[in-house]
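User: For my dataset I need records formatted as: sequence, then structure tokens, nothing else. Please produce one.
Assistant:
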Amino acid sequence: MKLLKSLIIVLFLLLAAGCTQSKADIKEVSIDEAKQAFENNGEKPNNKTEQFSFYLPENYKVEKADKYNVILAKGAQRYILFVNENEEENSQVSYDTLVKQYENPFISKTFKKNDKLGYLFVHELDSKKYEVTVGIGGTKLTTETELKNIKEDARNMMIIVSSIQ
């Protein structure tokens, strides 16, 4: 009986270990998700501020908006959307600022399509929290999240940023 219990525990641990993704896998999948969202033709806006319109996926809401910033929420998680109307969609200023600010980012990847520059930049804050920023030109969206949520956040954030009109 003890042998059977031990065998079941070992099998459970092996299965659980096989279901978790490595940091390298999460990095690769997050880049792919952000790139796909960047390359798609953007969602039709379903929200509007005084300055611009944008799409919000289900479960996201606008908490506060002013001329250049919008605070978004999905449950307890907050996102800061910044739009610099003076920067073109091919501007690298926001991305270059992140690169200079943080050494050894977890992810630093750019995407190009037509005359647009998109990026995914992820910085490890501590062993449990990551700062995720996606952007296109002078528009960027930033949040703090856990490693396991980077992929989903990167995709949804790029969908939002890609939809801005």
